[in-house]
Amino acid sequence: MSEKRGYHHGELRKALITATDDILRENGIEGFSLRDAARRAGVSPGAPAHHFGSASGLLTEVAILGYEELARYLGDAVDDGTPAGRMRALAAAYVAFALDHPGRFRLMFRKDLVNRTNPVYEETSKRALWPFAEAIAGVNGTTLETLLEARNLAPIFAAWSTAHGIAYLALEDKMHFALQGNYDEDFRKRLLPEILKAQWA
Questions:
Q1: Minimum mean pLDDT among 13-17, 112-116, 124-128: which range?
Q2: Are 37 and 64 contained in the same domain?
Q3: What is the pTM of this model?
Q4: 20 to 30 Å CA-CA from 66: which of 26, 45, 112, 129?
């Protein structure tokens, strides 16, 4: 496939985003290059820069897809109807997203690779994480409006840091000594629920 074979503008953008996503999934962020993305999309090496301006522009588009997918994971979280149960369900969904999409997950938080001032990125990332803020308000017995005041942001960052830290430890196999048998299955079904219950009983 080549540019001469008829990519429309939108189709070429989509093909390059898909190629980049594939690279991240297969090789991680360290294995990404604009040249490889172009090769996989079947276009000239200069096409990514032409359409996205830079590697950061292309990677930002993939990060936006990551936040959209994270929002779906959090939206599908099933809880027991209690504030603590809601937090556990969201945190478990957050960790599951990281384990299922490690390349996207690592990219989404890389300030050196993603343009955080991109308005779509800003809006999508805030919207994706909104359920956390709502759940944390419930756990703390307050309203979301009160919690979002600058002087009350600590509970949000504390809870988010917990879920994020668990996700990174799991991705880096830092909990292997506590797992048995099928590591991934044992972590998701046994250890992760125990960790989350210890945090939000």
A1: 13-17
A2: no
A3: 0.90
A4: 45
